[in-house]
Write a structure and sequence with these properties.
Number of strands of chain A: 4
Radius of gyration of chain A: 14 Å
Shape of chain A: globular
Distance between the termini of chain A: 19 Å
Structural class of chain A: alpha+beta
Order of helices and strands of chain A: EHEEHHE
Helix content of chain A: 25-40%
Number of domains of chain A: 1
Low-confidence stretches of chain A: none
Oligomer: homodimer
CATH topology of chain A: Alpha-Beta Plaits
Strand order of the largest sheet of chain A: 2-3-1-4
Largest sheet of chain A: 4 strands, antiparallel
CATH architecture of chain A: 2-Layer Sandwich
Strand content of chain A: 35-45%
Chain lengths: 100, 100
């Protein structure tokens, strides 16, 4: 299992219609892409971080993650919505750690 | 539900005994603190991030999260292990986003 997360801040004014539209569209478009499991739209609340929102999703393996990255709906979303509307972001990807 | 996450890099050499010990001790000590749910020890794998590891845990509400932060076992762990052994870290906390 690979958990792909991205924490981000939008260019839009807080609580604006544009903000709501971006978040709802992202969830609708990205969660529908083949291989995406446990998609979550999140609000970042730590005062120690400046980011506003997060998405989290899981993939069965690297092949499924790569297919998502290359999927036309993902590529179009990044080009048409992410790049123009996101101010700053950071990607963090996890796999479970095997401890003795 | 509040999901508390921290992504971090250790001062220890990769795959060292000290690294393994820190990760195993952290999991054992932190996951046993009252109110901690779904504790996960994770390896960070995105080449776009410099961090090596992550912990994720969930709390029922802010009261439970505050109690964890103030718990003597957490305070002692931060003082005796986290501060001396962690090179860099970032905290990201999430709550589910309610979308229409």
């Amino acid at each position: 299992m690979i958990r792909h997360t991205v924490v981000f801040t939008l260019k839009h004014q807080q609580h604006s219609l544009e903000e709501k539209r971006f978040l709802a569209d992202a969830r609708r478009i990205l969660s529908a892409i083949k291989g995406v499991r446990h998609f979550e739209a999140l609000r970042q609340i730590s005062p120690k971080s400046d980011y506003q929102f997060g998405f989290s999703m899981e993939f069965a393996d690297q092949r499924a993650y790569t297919a998502y990255n290359e999927h036309p709906d993902h590529v179009a979303f990044v080009r048409d919505r992410w790049v123009p509307e996101v101010e700053a972001f950071q990607e963090i990807d996890y796999v479970p750690l095997v401890l003795p």
